[in-house]
Amino acid sequence: xxxxxxxxxxxxxxxxxxxxxxxxxxxxxxxxxxxxxxxxxxxxxxxxxxxxxxxxxxxxxxxxxxxxxxxxxxxxxxxxxxxxxxxxxxxxxxxxxxxxxxxxxxxxxxxxxxxxxxxxxxxxxxxxxxxxxxxxxxxxxxxxxxxxxxxxxxxxxxxxxxxxxxxxxxxxxxxxxxxxxxxxxxxxxxxxxxxxxxxxxxxxxxxxxxxxxxxxxxxxxxxxxxxxxxxxxxxxxxxxxxxxxxxxxxxxxxxxxxxxxxxxxxxxxxxxxxxxxxxxxxxxxxxxxxxxxxxxxxxxxxxxxxxxxxxxxxxxxxxxxxxxxxxxxxxxxxxxxxxxxxxxxxxxxxxxxxxxxxxxxxxxxxxxxxxxxxxxxxxxxxxxxxxxxxxxxxx
Length: 395
Ligand SMILES: *Cc1c(COP(=O)(O)O)cnc(C)c1O
Hints:
alpha/beta; Aspartate Aminotransferase, domain 1; four-stranded antiparallel sheet; binds pyridoxal-5'-phosphate; globular; seven-stranded mixed sheet; 13% strand
């Protein structure tokens, strides 16, 4: 997911526009800014690229999740169904909203299993929050059908899968809201940044206000604006938005190169090894930031990950042992260790997070290795990588 690999002249020019005026704030200062509205321009171009009605650019992907939950009316005591394989931010956003994360299993897409939702639903379920992990899609159509049938809010965490699609429709545009991250290691970067998208104008208005202390952004005098709701400050600066604008214009090039690199490696491994691969409901829509493959069991996977490292095949992640992306190592969550008392501590019959078991997800993540696809690889590097992978993984 390496937009930072392509940092260059284009990013410098957009940032220079902002430095030339000194207007680092996205709102107002209409005279001084000489026509430069980087955050607003980013939003317009993102909407066009994703074919979605509205977007709001904000400070981070985590902020985007918080904004989406608030705008969609998910709050105190509401249950939100989440997967155990994600970045911890997904779970933190639910907890900080005062809501209750309820874990359901993943399937071989490495994302929330639509078959597991029924068992996780209670009378308090308000939303389902699938995460399109590692560049590709959950079975999002089946998840959406389930949410529609049950009257549940669907929020997509698309932080790792900007530019991926399912049957030609952008991931992040299936539910009420989609969330993206533009932190430094994502498909494109603002340095730090995030966005929410929606086709629902009323949800957009709420998100736009919530992310800026409830400002309704009507008129040209910030001090006189109305405040229909309370909110917080999740704004992005124009400097960060400027970097993102240049990066967004490179998205298609980034994805095309990732796909070509991935295809070549996957084809070689298919031919020369017996590995299984992550299930992709729509292979053509894969943004190809990662190649995920399955070993036969946990032992084999751990050995293979070590072997790949020794053979100089860098960027191979064994998520099962990772501190940030899989529930197994989330001791702080299991103990609900926080800086201060959390809203969930007031709920006496909340799930016992220390005792949560997700055996099906354990079995899948336990034998999965995910290799990051880099943009800068030369043909010689790809050839060498394939040879090294085949020699480690052939057995
Ligand atoms: C990166 C990420 C986030 C959080 O994004 P930040 O911009 O780093 O706050 C949330 N969810 C997932 C799945 C992510 O990968």
